Amino acid sequence: MNPKEDEIKTEQPAKKKRNKFRTILFILLVVILIGGTYAAWFFLLKDNEPQEQVVLPIVTSAPMDFTVNLADSQQRRYLSVTVELGYRDEELAAEIT
Question: Residue 64: pLDDT above 90?
Fold first, then answer.
């Protein structure tokens, strides 16, 4: 046999492996490109219509004043608080009063 024929025979399997690697790499890059394009469309370009939300008005109760004497024999201390409740359900008005 010729030495050149031996070199040609040994180089052919290496080229087949290299071609398989390139094919797999190409397919992988195409899949990544398609996935990236879909992700960009989904997150950036997709028409996200806001859902209509019904916002109920806030109803407030009348301010209630509370004064509490803190038991301390040495000093005069007290706590005075004004509380006003806000709620969205008008049926709670009877319960709060």
Answer: no
